[in-house]
Amino acid sequence: MTWKKKKKLQGKNRYYSVSKKLRREYRSNDEFEIMLNNLSLEEIIALKLELASKSAGGYLYGLPIWRSLRYVSEDAVLKYALSATRTRVEAMRFLGMIPIEYRKVVQIYGHEKYFEEETTEDS
């Protein structure tokens, strides 16, 4: 029995990569990504909040941080799903969503625009 290579899908998502986008904007590099990889997600979030607090004079009072955590994590997972898959249908399946739910989430977070800036620079 021979194994055949699956035909690669040529979807819009194949150009999506958060890492490449940040590197093109000179906001990331190999050294930074290696250091970041050594931290847990919890440490990264705590460090980010600490740095934001320092730049705000040491106080983040009045910001609904606890209530915003759900949206922050959904935003991050959706960006990853779009960059890890080749098509929107694959991203939807990866997230375990139905089409109506997926469309609603994409409208809320607007990730198409986030990644479109990168693809227009390629042309």
Brief account:
With 123 residues, this protein is mainly α. The chain contains seven helices and no strands.
Your description of this structure?
There is one protein chain. The protein is mostly helical. It has one domain (14-122). Helices cover 66% and strands 0% of the residues. It is built from 7 helices and no strands. It is globular. The model has no long low-confidence stretch (mean pLDDT 84).
Q: What ranges have pLDDT less than 50 throughout 5 or more consecutive residues?
A: none
Shape: globular
**Structural classification:** mainly alpha
Portion of residues in helices? 55-70%
Task: Tell me the Rg in angstroms.
Answer: 18 Å
What is the chain-wise order of helices and strands? Answer: HHHHHHH
Descriptive keywords:
7 helices; mainly alpha; 123 residues
Topology (SSEs and partners):
Elements: H1 18-24, H2 30-37, H3 41-55, H4 65-84, H5 88-95, H6 99-109, H7 111-122
Helix pairs in contact: 4-5
